[in-house]
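Components:
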Amino acid sequence: MTDQISTLPSLVIKGKTIRVPIIQGGMGVGVSLYPLARAVAREGGAGIVSSACLDRLVEKRTGKKLNSYEAAYEEVSLSKTEGGIAGINIMFALQRDYEASVRGAIDAGADMIISGAGLPMGLPGIQDPKDTALIPIVSSARALDLICKKWERFGYRPDAVVLEGPLAGGHLGFKIDQVDLEENRLENLFGPVKDMAMKYGDIPIIVAGGIYTHEDIIKYIRMGAQGVQMGTRFLATIESSATEDYKKAVVMAQDEDIVVAHRPGSPCGLPFRVIKQSPMYVSAQQRLRKPKCDKGYVLLKDAEGKFTRCPAKVSNEEFFCICNGLLSSAGYNTDVEEPLYTVGTNASRIDGIIPVKTLMDELTGTVSPTKA
Ligand SMILES: Cc1cc2nc3c(=O)[nH]c(=O)nc-3n(C[C@H](O)[C@H](O)[C@H](O)COP(=O)(O)O)c2cc1C
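Structure:
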């Protein structure tokens, strides 16, 4: 491309300017903690910590017993210590800790709460968000419509929306047989979601899933997106809290190694993209291990309204214990479970582990990509 814009336009959400229109996607469990979020915020993007299992992770780091509220508060506060814009990703599927995480983040002054893995229908009703932007993640215009309608009850309109296509890492917002459909390619989802966002008053759209280069970002900005959210590229940075083995597995991964796990899959019930050589995925395929759910983050309410049911406790034919597998991939409770490595499809293009600054310089077009 010859007409490359070297400076990307800034992104404005809820009156705050994010100098570089790149949101680093929240990555649980324990991959996007404050060191990554803080570095991205410092470089002008939006740094996002993941709330998944955060009480346990922060407790390990600090030696202090913390609940989910306190852990979200602590991690968001630390992410903002070197300036810039920082927030938190709170998965709706983690029902038991959802509200406490939202409250902790708002009270800590998070610039944004990004919430997906289910439709966060009640998010604006939990607490007055004050300056915190509320940003749902959707995979269709219909989902955005449903959320906007529900949020009207609270007199609240999403401050932005993340549109995540099927090439993303983590959980996918598509049924397993819809992941590869042409109509679900991010480029094809974009138009209807843009129309819906305009209908509700020009809600800024952040696209996610398979964005890799500076040119990709420009392509979507020219299509009418206001920004991008990227996960996998930040996974293999020095500041990411994934283990060295995880980062090496990303560097080694080839196209054919990246698969969508389903039966056995995530107890959240959504397809989940993994590196097929992940030790836990190999064992789960061969039914070598019984799921050992002793954490209880992905819990559903029982008949008495108590959070006791985890699908992975019920069937290891259908589900694997995602909490323990992902905790292990961040270096925690490795004696309990083997690591499970989740990535986006573009992990096969990553050939080195680089500092956030180098990555941001490449993505903003300040310097050309270098070979590791
Ligand atoms: C290791 C990893 C963990 C992730 N964890 C979460 C998560 O906890 N919550 C969430 O909403 N999205 C999660 N995602 C999705 C990212 O936030 C992001 O939207 C997605 O990865 C974008 O696609 P890309 O990886 O192709 O850039 C995760 C992605 C990765 C790679």
